[in-house]
Each structure stands twice: as C-alpha cells, then as structure tokens.
Amino acid sequence: MLDDIDRRLLAVLVEDARLSLKELAARVGLSSPSVSERLRRLEERGVVRAYTVDIAPQALGYQLQAIVRIRPMPGRLHVVQKLIEETEAFCECDKVTGDDCFIARLFVRSIEELDRILDRIADKAETSTAIVKSQPIRRRPPPLA
Amino acid sequence: MLDDIDRRLLAVLVEDARLSLKELAARVGLSSPSVSERLRRLEERGVVRAYTVDIAPQALGYQLQAIVRIRPMPGRLHVVQKLIEETEAFCECDKVTGDDCFIARLFVRSIEELDRILDRIADKAETSTAIVKSQPIRRRPPPLA
DNA sequence: GACGTCGGTCGATATCGTCCAGCATGGCGG
DNA sequence: CCGCCATGCTGGACGATATCGACCGACGTC
User: Fold this and answer.
1) Per CA to C1' distance, which residue is closest to C15?
2) A120: exposed, middle or buried (C-beta count within 10 Å: 0-12, 13-18, 19+)?
3) Strand, coil or helix: what is A132?
4) Checking CA distances to B13, which of A7, A77, B114, B128 falls within 20 to 30 Å?
C-alpha cells in the first residue's frame, strides 16, 4: 500500500511538516512535482489526516495534565460522553473495553480547576484520576515499517 | 504572553500546518513578514514544539489500539520503563501518580501482536489492558483562550 | 509487439518567502 | 509635556519555490 518513498516522506514530515516541497524532494530523492503528487495522493487516500502543530501546553498556562478513567452510572453513558466532549479541557478521550468505559486526558491550570471539572461529572459517573508526572514517550506515530 | 493574533495563528496552524505564510497572513489580517516573524518567535520561545503530520494508523496496518496500565514489580521500575521506551508499538506513555505507574498507548496489527508485546513485560510488571473501541475525542490541543 | 496507464523528469511561468527601508505606536526619561 | 527609543508593522524588490504542461520510460495487457 505504501512504498518505501512514501514512508520516508512521512517520516520526514513527522519531524517537520512545514518543509518545502523542494526540501522534501531532496530528502527522498525525487523531483518536487513528484513529491507534490505523492502528498496529494496520501491525503486523498486518508493516510495523511492532517498537518498540524504541536503546542507546548505549558506555554498556554496548562501546568497540569491528568488521565482520568470514567465509569458512567447505569443509563448515564451518553450524558457523560456528551459532557466530556463539550468540556474543552478534555483533549483526548477513548471509549474502551473493560470496567472503565472512557479513558480521557485532561489539561488544567491548577488542581482547583481539575476538581471543578471532575465535580461536574461526579454525580453521573465514577472517576479515577492519575496526575501525569512525566512523559517517557510523548506522542509519536506507530512505526512506519 | 500570547496575544490574540498568536492564538488565532496557532488555531489556524492546528488545522493546517502547511498553509503558506501568505495564506496565514490573510487569515489573521497581517502581512506575511509579520507572520513569519511571529512564527519564528513562537518557535524560539518553545510555544510551537514542532510542525507534524497526523497519520491514520489504519493506513499503516494498525487495526488495534490499546491503553495499558502498567505497574512494575518492586525494583523493576527502570527496567520496565526502558522496555516500554524501546518498544516502538508504544506510541505514548505517561508516568503517573497512583497505583498504576505508567499508562501507555499501544498500536498493534492484531491481538496476537498485543499478546506478544505484553508477554515480554509480564514477568516484570502487572498490566491491565483496555482495547480502544472508538475515540470520542481524538487528540486536540487544549483551549488557546 | 503495440498500446494504455502510471509515475516520473524538465523547463516555463506564476506564486511565495525574505530582506530591507521606512513608518506608526507606546513607554519612558528629561 | 515633549522628544526619544524600542518594537512591530507594511510595502516593494528580488531570489526561491510551487505548479503546470509537455514529454519520457517502465510495465502490464491484449
């Protein structure tokens, strides 16, 4: 599905998605129109979902990051999901198998803010909160091989 | 720290980090040299950590995503952390407070692969695995406001 | 073996990025 | 209160880059 050049192209873009076509072309050993065409097709096929920017949460004042496991009370699943989605501080949420229905990541400016947000869920779900102390692995794509 | 234009710039870049300076300039109502200078400073100050590409894991053959909580056995913390870091399938790992020492995200091609990877940790740590069924919120930055 | 398709290069032209000079604004000291 | 400096913006010129069209070669099909 992806050939070797596509993979190298993606690997380069993971590092710097703003490189010029010319530079990308040089890195993978093609001409820039070819690279342009390959990118177009990767986008079209949905391999590339988006080009985006990685922003340091600290720079925005978010000093705290928490991972919350959320188990809605019977019959409250949809209400809880909606509440999570509408809370902007939740920056990632997965619906998973097992007792915990949702696992979500939360960025907050303070413990008080964390408490305030979790309080709003407290009567509809049980939550277990873990504060992030460090990130041995910060978001990376799965191996391209 | 960040003014309104910086925030709008970041908001635009989150959506498409490959837009030209000219286009970015038009979106925030400045000239392109100004935008260029603002980006340079956002990068310099560490607000922008990187420009990157969001790749669909399915396109690479990763059909399964799991979230694993990992509790190393006494004295095994560093060995376990090293093992996690060296396993490329772990694409995110946070060290957290609480009983679970690590919470990690794993991309795999099959249940067999998941089993194989967790087996390598099994004698050094207890793990609880949750398979991701859907993603109500897929990675987004915290509110820029 | 001829033909169609796909993916590539090359060169011309349009578009964009960068550099520079000059100008407006806001904060500060005399 | 006024002048001065620092900062950040703009516009235009010029070099760099993207895009488009024409063409080429490899490969698979009939």
Assistant:
1) B22
2) exposed
3) strand
4) A7
Q: Three-state DSSP class for A144?
A: coil
Q: Determine whether the interchain pair B134/A15 forms a contact, defined as Cβ–Cβ distance below 8 Å.
A: no
Q: Which residues of B touch A48 (CB under 8 A)?
A: 53-56
pLDDT at B11: 98
Domain count, chain B: 2
- A17 lies in some domain: yes
Q: What are phi and psi of A110, to 5 degrees?
A: -160, 165
B15, closest residue in chain A (CA to CA): A52
Q: What is the pLDDT of residues A73-82, one digit of tens each?
A: 999 999 999 9
Whole domain around residue B34: which residue ranges?
4-44
Q: Is the pLDDT of residue B1 over 90?
A: no
pLDDT tens figures, A104-123: 999 999 999 999 999 999 99
Nearest Cβ partner for A103 among B62, B67, B142: B67
CA separation for the pair B49, A30 (Å, rounded): 28
- Any domain includes A50: no
Strand ranges in A7-72 using DSSP code E only, listed in sequence order: 48-55, 64-72
Structure-block tokens of residue A72: 């809605």
Whole-number pLDDT of residue A131: 98
- Which residues in chain B have their CB less than 8 angstroms from residue A131's CB? 96-98
The pTM for the full model equals: 0.93
- B38 and B8 in a common domain: yes
3-state secondary structure of B17: coil
Is residue A49 assigned to a domain?
Answer: no
